[in-house]
Design goal:
By secondary structure, this protein is of the alpha/beta class. The protein folds into two domains: 6-39 and 291-400, Aspartate Aminotransferase, domain 1; 79-286, Type I PLP-dependent aspartate aminotransferase-like (Major domain) (Aspartate Aminotransferase, domain 2), CATH 3.40.640. Helix content is 45%, strand content 14%. The protein has helices at 6-21, 29-35, 51-66, 71-76, 82-93, 106-117, 131-134, 157-167, 187-196, 258-266, 275-284, 287-312, 337-348, 373-400; strands at 43-44, 100-103, 121-126, 141-146, 171-175, 202-206, 234-239, 252-255, 317-319, 326-331, 350-351, 353-354, 365-369. The strands form three sheets. It has a seven-stranded mixed beta sheet, with helices on both faces. The protein has a four-stranded antiparallel beta sheet with strand order 9-10-13-12, with helices on one face. The protein is globular and about 70 Å long. Residues 105-107, 129, 175, 179, 206, 208, 239, 241, 247, 252 line the site of pyridoxal-5'-phosphate. The site of pyridoxal-5'-phosphate has 12 residues, from helix 6.
């Protein structure tokens, strides 16, 4: 139980309205700033991006685009066509350009793939990123595969394979690491899934958080996009928003069989990128940027590990295992997620996502992103204070009764 003043309660109501208006996604930072001027947001722990990568992008952007006046070209000219940007990525990714489809954010590719290639039945593991089931067209059957709370919402590979064989869908979706819990399935296990389920027409693997995951002590990146060549039913999706900290640019790509890319391009998507996204994609493939990006990637992974470690020390919450840059937290001892989130926002200016709208989660959950080291320290202190407040109030209540 968390206590609010009457002024605070008014803000709590407003937050609820904003959340309802945003549907299954969180209201943006801008919406909050505009509609809740009385709340001073200090830390956006809702958005799942690497802040150091954003800093790096801004550094390059200022030097090469703003300060040189090249911004004019970016605004005045058309960007390159989809296939041309695919060619820029091809060498870097070591994948044929014909297999690469560029999206205005990965969400556009999710929509394109599900609308065009899912004909009959899709299996979606829950909890998940909501677009996967929201974009399913009428007439397509959606079957949910529940990640088990007892297994900390990690994927049970054998059970999953059996489930898919039994249900015979034409499309399955694996987000790795998964959103909203950060659970990671090792590359060897995903490969096993792919080999066992060769009858499935579309195996979508969403690697939007893959730059935060690792399987060795050197934190080396483990992507499976090269498997598309051998397994034409595999579709690997990649958002650049989170690990490169550039959600506002809208950049993502998909690796899929050539017929799919051709089919999509036949129906549109010619100039679906913008000049900023093209600049980003060109930067992404440059050796100087790649080298520096990898440094901020590893720095952020290490700090996130420390952050998660500290969260685990706090009482009355359960921190689920994560290989992403966020954690799913279950609130115990009667703490309500809506109240907890409102308190963090109103009293500490920390914006966190409740997960009470996520299907497949049973209990009071929030999802908390790792930010810069200073911000993470502040978040830990604030959460500690909220938990203590809950304890004190509980004690007072019990004594009164
Ligand atoms: C954020 C997210 C996306 C969409 O990313 P954009 O590139 O910003 O459209 C896709 N998949 C998952 C799992 C995500 O979390």
């Amino acid at each position: 139980m968390i206590k609010f003043t009457s002024d605070e309660l008014k803000v709590v109501k407003k937050i609820e309205v904003l959340k309802n208006e945003a549907g299954s996604h969180s209201p943006s930072f801008f919406t909050f700033k505009q509609k809740l001027p009385e709340v001073d947001i200090k830390v956006d722990a809702c958005f799942l991006s690497n802040p150091y990568a954003t800093d790096l992008f801004i550094e390059y952007f200022n030097k090469e685009i703003l300060h040189t006046g090249n911004i004019r070209d970016l605004l005045e000219s058309y960007p390159s066509q989809n296939g041309v940007i695919a060619e820029i990525l091809a060498d870097f990714l070591k994948i044929d350009s014909g297999n690469i489809f560029i999206g205005n954010g990965a969400i556009e590719i999710i929509q394109a793939v599900i609308h065009n290639f899912t004909k009959r039945k899709i299996i979606i593991t829950i909890p998940t990123f909501s677009s996967y089931y929201e974009y399913v067209k009428d007439g397509v059957e959606v079957v949910y595969y529940n990640l088990s709370k007892n297994n900390n919402y990690n994927l049970d590979v054998e059970e999953y394979i059996a489930f898919v064989k039994q249900n015979k869908p034409d499309t399955i979706v694996l987000i790795n690491p998964n959103n909203p819990n950060g659970g990671y399935t090792k590359a060897a296990d995903v490969q096993r899934i792919i080999e066992e389920l060769s009858f499935v027409d579309n195996i979508i693997i969403d690697e939007s958080f893959i730059h935060f995951a690792y399987e060795s002590e050197s934190y080396q990146l483990v992507s499976l996009s090269h498997l598309v060549k051998e397994h034409p039913n595999v579709i690997v999706l990649k958002s650049m928003s989170k690990d490169f900290g550039i959600a506002g640019v809208r950049a993502g790509y998909g690796v899929m069989r050539k017929e799919y890319v051709d089919l999509l391009l036949k129906n549109g998507y010619l100039w679906n990128s913008n000049g900023f996204a093209e600049y980003f994609f060109r930067l992404y493939t440059r050796a100087d940027f790649a080298l520096r990006y990898d440094k901020v990637r590893v720095k952020y992974i290490v700090e996130t590990l420390e952050f998660i470690q500290e969260l685990r020390q706090l009482p009355n919450i359960k921190v689920y295992p994560s290989m992403a840059n966020f954690v799913l937290i279950e609130l115990l001892e009667g703490i309500k997620s809506t109240e907890f989130v409102a308190k963090l926002l109103i009293s500490y200016g920390i914006y966190v996502r409740t997960c009470d709208d996520k299907i497949g989660l049973k209990g009071q959950f929030i999802r908390l992103a790792s930010r810069s080291k200073d911000e993470n320290d502040y978040v830990i202190q604030s959460i500690k204070a909220c938990i203590q407040m809950n304890d004190v109030l509980k004690l007072v209540n019990e004594t009164v009764v």
